[in-house]
């Protein structure tokens, strides 16, 4: 098992080969955990195809090569300072594989928008219009010391009012699509990811698939929380593209799934999964390991069998991290550890031993109580020792 140590060098190769483009928010990220940069649209006009070598990204690469911590990568630095394995250490990205600040992307993530009808327990307004609607209707969650995920500002309201059609037909929207095509034609792209929100709610998904290179692997990330008829139509179309794989976001089954992936039913999930299987679409799973999902995680592992799965630990918000639970629940997880893959074992063992803080426990209690109340869900599906611990019952 590889355990992170306090950060001593601040290089991450992802800054040199990973690019995410948010069509809706007109921003980029150099890692799924990094803070976004606003796209300089004027610069794109004079420097088409150079989005990956923007002044901001060039400066961040310079800082990394000079062993200076990059501010947008604070999530990894904070995790590593607590001896927690970060995304950087999990991918081995501290190895200096790229040394030229001018680079080309190998992985391209296209974020098609925030339209989503799920309010996954660890998600937020940035990636889900259902989360925006919850906060806009019911108000903020009174959590201490978190970011603005539970606050609606004027920028959020403006974005929420824009329709997909408005964005797609706008000058800026057209310019971003043109830039995507240029990057694909000029770079050595190995994989293209399409994420959201929920990509299967994106009206122009078919148009996007058609302009992407057919010899590059395309992965569509979905929560399968889409109307079955709509999903069937999209899968019928995708069955013609042999380079497409569907990555399913899930890490639990039954009523635990319905709590963590609030807004979808387990019945609909299984129906849409069956549609993928019947149409022989390649699929895999992408699982977020948080304290709620690991409580019954072995049941999910048994359910998916030999299907490929990648695991990502939840760091943000920190009160949903794997270690924020009672000792009795931790003992149960340890006893079931041998039933999990080596990768999952390494992630869980690297985090679960850390003692949770009182602030994390209190925030978890406030959050879960309010989250469940707003969705008419019950916390009784989780172990009693876990619930008692949250509620300070001795």
Summarize the model shown.
The protein is of the alpha/beta class. The chain has helices at 14-17, 41-46, 55-65, 74-81, 87-90, 129-138, 154-161, 164-169, 171-186, 205-211, 228-238, 254-260, 266-278, 297-304, 327-335, 342-352, 358-375, 384-390, and strands at 18-22, 27-29, 37-38, 107-111, 119-120, 191-195, 217-222, 244-249, 261-262, 282-289, 309-313. Helix 11 packs parallel to helix 13.
Helix-strand blueprint:
Elements: H1 14-17, E1 18-22, E2 27-29, E3 37-38, H2 41-46, H3 55-65, H4 74-81, H5 87-90, E4 107-111, E5 119-120, H6 129-138, H7 154-161, H8 164-169, H9 171-186, E6 191-195, H10 205-211, E7 217-222, H11 228-238, E8 244-249, H12 254-260, E9 261-262, H13 266-278, E10 282-289, H14 297-304, E11 309-313, H15 327-335, H16 342-352, H17 358-375, H18 384-390
Parallel strand pairs: 1-4, 4-6, 6-7, 7-8, 8-10, 10-11
Antiparallel strand pairs: 1-2, 2-3, 5-9
Name its key features.
394 residues, alpha/beta, TIM Barrel, 2 domains, nine-stranded mixed beta sheet, 18 helices, 11 strands, 42% helix
Estimated radius of gyration: 21 Å
List low-pLDDT spans.
1-6
Number of helices: 18
Helix content: 40-55%
Largest sheet: 9 strands, mixed
